[in-house]
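Chapter review: from sequence to fold.
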Amino acid sequence: MGDRSNSIRVKVSRGDDRGRHFDEFDVPALESQTVLDVVTWIQRNADPSLSYRFACRVGMCGSCAMTVNGKPRWTCRTHVSKVLQGDTLTIEPLRNLPVVKDLATDMSEFFDKWTSAESRFVPTKTREDAIEIVQPATKERIEADAAIECINCGVCYASCDAVELNPDYLGPAALNRAWTLQNDVRDGGKNSRLRAVTGEGGCQNCHSQQGCVQHCPNTLNPTRSIAGLKRLATRAVFKREL
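The token string follows.
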């Protein structure tokens, strides 16, 4: 293994859901080194067969999310010096998602749940209509703005114990997006969306443990958004709208 005085011992998950194991690598320790730098060094210098996913490298796309020493993180924005345990770094794929190979997960079910939650904007006007003015100081717009910066990285989904216990649960990201749309005065899909997010696997499955809040790289609060959906659902039941 060589002299480790200027190196990091890195344990990397290999394989897929049919069988996984750890391979160990010695990676040169560098100043201001990120976890993504480490994974890239391994792929380029030690094992070109290592599979992982990344794109922007600057915290804009979220595609490089992995599990680092047991916690889901954006690897491009995670400095090794902040997460190193002794001289060891353990890198695994995101939890709660099928593993395609090594550190790359299949995000299909994550995005399918966005569709199931009807987390898409439903326009009420056409291009022929005048542009609707959205007042930024209204309660609804403030609620939407507080939750709108999700970039679909899957970190909250991977950190959610409710998803692990119930694979049908829509998950924090899809429900957070639904909440922003329920607060958008321009949207016309509120009734059908509320039925979607209160059905099987809906917002009532959230246990409010706030793992999504703790790990969200954009410091969003999906638990708060889900609580908002629960309140809307309760009101709808009393009004016999659900």
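Two observations follow directly from the output. The two ends are 63 Å apart (CA to CA). The first strand starts at residue 7 and ends at 16.
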